[in-house]
Amino acid sequence: MRELAGAFLDQLTVERGASRHTLAGYRRDLGRYLGFLDRLGRTDIGAVTTADVEAFLEDLRRGDPEAGRAPLAPSSVVRVLSAVRGLHRFAAAEGAAADDPAARVRPPKTPGRLPKALSLAEVERLLAAIPGGEAAGVADLRDRALVELLYSTGARVSELCDLDVDDLDRADGLVLLRGKGGRERLVPVGRPALAAAEAWLVRGRPALARAGSPPALLLNRLGRRLSRQSAGNALAAIGERAGLPGRVSPHALRHSFATHLLEGGADIRTVQELLGHASVTTTQIYTRVTAENLRRVWAGAHPRAGG
Question: Which of 52, 127, 215, 267 pairs as cysteine with 164 (C-beta 3.0–4.6 A)?
């Protein structure tokens, strides 16, 4: 079964163009699933039943404190089930199993969570917490470019970390982002973000680049490509300084980008293109955010809102 899982991951890479982050997630989730099947004594994927898959999901929800496994949230269980379903579909298509037992398993219901967007004032506070002008150090220049570009483009943090210098067209104010499944899109970049990127490229990046450094737009202090984790840590630290503890993450800036565009009158299809969503259904969650904002303003301002 592990060889079959390896072949499935190879297919995701070659035929579907899955990103390395997606592959790492699938590999982790399938490793957990195959370990569970080992404990059940299943050695043939054709012998796995729907009851086995359901028992695995229940095991994820319950966790095992003695083994150091915390219970997974419903949203995480849904993510793992997606990987399990993919493996069983692959097994059936390759003739390694007669049917797909995971197809009959219903995913757990997940609570409809609204993204936590920063307000415009909070974005300004975040930027103000990064030293500017002559007081800005190399890390400050990079961090301002990071924040400005994330908020200006709505990029996923992995997309921004994967950017090379040549992907940013400073003359035309465009950036080439490579999203899920290898899909590319051109996204406009605002003047403040372009100015921050220019300052970083002229005054900051040369101080970190060294022989053998990648052509990455954003570098870490060792002259290597900035990682998603390092970007997240930098944002969290800036958020603490701005008085926004626990509020600031790359995804929060992506949420803020989409929410503020819709509140400003942007068409949802345009926002879908900018975010790189394959389906407008994914983008529609942001209309719920703006509706909540409208409801809150109405409740505080309308004379008969309180009933």
Answer: 215
